[in-house]
Design goal:
alpha+beta; two-stranded antiparallel sheet
């Protein structure tokens, strides 16, 4: 394998491979150790139970209010959920 116009010796190639392997092992260990250290507070949601796998859930709402001599209505809101995989849902809310 040419490096700067010359070939690496077997010893140099071995050392280079060993260094790469050590870096990879340290990175993997750090990922598993630090993964729990970066945990945040519990996720807060208004939908406590995900949609079943390969099922849809569509929620819609209108708001309106009447007072003496007045009336108002809010635009419709819609929330569409799909169970993409078990215990995971895709959400589109407007």
């Amino acid at each position: 394998m040419p490096v700067n116009g010359s070939y690496l010796s077997c010893e140099a190639l071995y050392m280079r491979t060993l260094r790469s392997l050590i870096v990879l092992i340290v990175a993997n260990i750090a990922t598993f150790v630090l993964d729990s250290a970066w945990a945040g507070p519990p996720f807060v949601t208004d939908d406590p139970e995900p949609v079943e796998h390969q099922h849809w859930e569509v929620n819609y709402a209108l708001t309106k209010s009447w007072r003496e001599g007045e009336a108002s209505a809010g635009i419709p809101s819609i929330d569409i959920n799909y169970g993409i995989v078990p215990n995971v849902q895709l959400v589109s809310a407007q």
